[in-house]
Design a protein that fits this description.
204 residues; alpha/beta; Aconitase, domain 4; 2 domains; 8 helices
């Protein structure tokens, strides 16, 4: 998993509340267990016409947002089903961070496991950012996870809070399996002791 330290990008404005995981990646794309290739289906029903033609008015189909890494949304982003395909699609598209007033808990946890930072700001701060993007197309944002700071391309700044465990995982590019493997020597010692104490458990 790619570590998250500092990310700078144009800010992608998705001015919608209660964006559920079925909107992020519709159910017909859940057949795969591969994390690659889902980015082209991100927000599929909003992004494409029925014949597959890109909708010119959808934000991800317009430069400079089509290459952005930071998504801005309204409250309760990632609600609905717990499908991990949603952060897979975001990550495969290139999204490294989502900024919103609130997130669905399971979705936010799935994002951490896939190297995506969810930044919770107040509704007023999020509104400020939407206004900044509207008045300055191509408005950029810089997110520094170690410092817990966001800076806009106009000099606007704010701080955000992240749980220490989440910060550690993202800064070091570790999911839960990676965290466990940091203790592989201790695990190996424990397994060796168990084999010595209870050899009959390991026969056959």
């Amino acid at each position: 998993m790619e570590a998250f330290t500092v990310v700078e990008s144009v800010l992608i404005p998705l001015d919608r509340a209660n964006v559920d995981t079925d909107a992020i990646i519709p159910k017909q794309f859940l057949k795969t267990i591969e994390r690659q290739g889902l980015g082209r289906h991100l927000f599929h029903d909003w992004r494409y016409e029925d014949d597959g033609t890109p909708k010119a008015d959808f934000v991800l189909n317009r430069p400079p947002y089509s290459g952005g890494k930071i998504l801005l949304a309204r409250e309760n982003f990632g609600c609905g089903s717990s499908r991990e395909h949603a952060p897979w699609a975001l990550a495969d598209f290139g999204i490294r961070a989502v900024v919103a007033p609130s997130f669905a808990d399971i979705f936010a946890n799935n994002c951490v496991q896939n190297g995506i930072l969810t930044v919770t700001l107040s509704a007023d701060e999020v509104e400020h950012l939407f206004q900044a993007v509207q008045s300055r197309p191509g408005y950029g944002l810089r997110i520094d996870l170690a410092q817990g700071e966001i800076q806009g391309s106009d000099g606007w700044r704010t701080h955000f809070e992240v749980a220490p465990g989440t910060r550690h995982k993202l800064l070091h590019g570790l999911d839960d399996i990676g965290i466990t493997l940091q203790h592989k020597e201790a695990i190996a010692r424990y397994e060796a002791q168990r084999r010595e104490q209870f050899p009959w458990l390991f026969r056959g």
